[in-house]
Amino acid sequence: MERQDLRDAGLKVTSPRLKVLGILEKSEERHLSAEGIYRLLLESGEELGLATVYRVLTQFEQAGLVSRHNFEGGTAVFELTDKAHHDHMVCLETGAVVEFCDERIEQIQRDIADRYGYTLEDHSLVLYVKPKRKPS
Amino acid sequence: MERQDLRDAGLKVTSPRLKVLGILEKSEERHLSAEGIYRLLLESGEELGLATVYRVLTQFEQAGLVSRHNFEGGTAVFELTDKAHHDHMVCLETGAVVEFCDERIEQIQRDIADRYGYTLEDHSLVLYVKPKRKPS
DNA sequence: ATGTATGCAAAACATTTGCACCTGG
DNA sequence: CCAGGTGCAAATGTTTTGCATACAT
């Protein structure tokens, strides 16, 4: 029950927070912008302010409930952090987002940070791709 | 001689363009924001508009002379594209930027895109790290 | 009750653009 | 000369913030 997730994060269980969580869970598009979440909610008849969506998303991010990504194009997108770690592939033609995970890359990243005297805290890997052309 | 790089890109050799190129070449900090480049130029007594810096950087990017990166924090940074391909490691404590390249990762990325039916066009990999704690 | 959350409008940023004026080739 | 470049100010798009009101506990 998500209400508990909110309490665990020290956040009151409020209507806007439940609505935003709800959209992130139910929408078929896993990766949504603040504006996108806002519009989906308005369209389904819910009332709330865009500023609140931003505030709620920022709090969720700090609580680890959602992850924020800055793909190309100025607008951040958010997704639930309920799945295992993964990276993203963005199709430059369709905008489709594919999630993938490769343990080899994860390991190499840790090695590289270590080699330079650092500890890996986080990373961002995005592949920008185009559909493979079928041989005609 | 950089003037030729500009001509090759179909760009007139103008004073603002030479100034921006000059800063990118001479500054000890390889990764600069538009605002940063602008301020460095003003400080060294050069006159030019911030809007021009943005325009020039965008043109340079399209010409392949500079690369734009979106590290965390809303502000894009630019660097000369005169070196071989590399990725970046950003220290969360000092802001230091370390460049690295790992051919294994490059290869795995191509494989992954291919496995999903795509061709890799570009990618963005940034490691966020902290200095390793010395054992006390 | 009371400390938080919210909504709205305004502010803050980074970046882009319209337009009249300049300039390189 | 003239297409293209520049400066300035205004516009844009995204995200944040101040403040008065409303709500969860």
Fold and architecture overview:
The structure is a homodimer of 136-residue chains. By secondary structure, the first copy, chain A, is of the alpha+beta class. Helices cover 40% and strands 24% of the residues of chain A. Chain A has five helices and six strands, in the order ααβααββββαβ. The first copy, chain A, has helices at residues 2-8, 15-26, 34-43, 50-62, 103-115, and strands at residues 32-33, 66-69, 77-80, 87-91, 97-100, 118-131. In chain A, the strands form two sheets. Chain A has a three-stranded antiparallel sheet with strand order 1-3-2. The first copy, chain A, has a three-stranded mixed sheet with strand order 5-4-6. In chain A, a hairpin with a 5-residue loop joins strand 4 (87-91) and strand 5. In chain A, helix 2 packs across helix 3 and helix 3 (34-43) packs across helix 4. Chain A is globular, with a radius of gyration of 17 Å. Chains A and B meet through helix 5 and strand 6 of A and helix 5 and strand 6 of B. The first copy, chain A, binds a DNA duplex (25 and 25 nucleotides) through helix 2 and helix 4.
Pick out its properties.
globular; 3-stranded mixed beta sheet; DNA-binding; 3-stranded antiparallel beta sheet; 5 helices; 136 residues; alpha+beta; homodimer
Quick synopsis:
Chain A is built from 5 helices and 6 strands. The first copy, chain A, has 136 residues and is of the alpha+beta class. In chain A, the strands form 2 sheets. Chain A has a 3-stranded antiparallel sheet. A 3-stranded mixed sheet of chain A has the order 5-4-6.
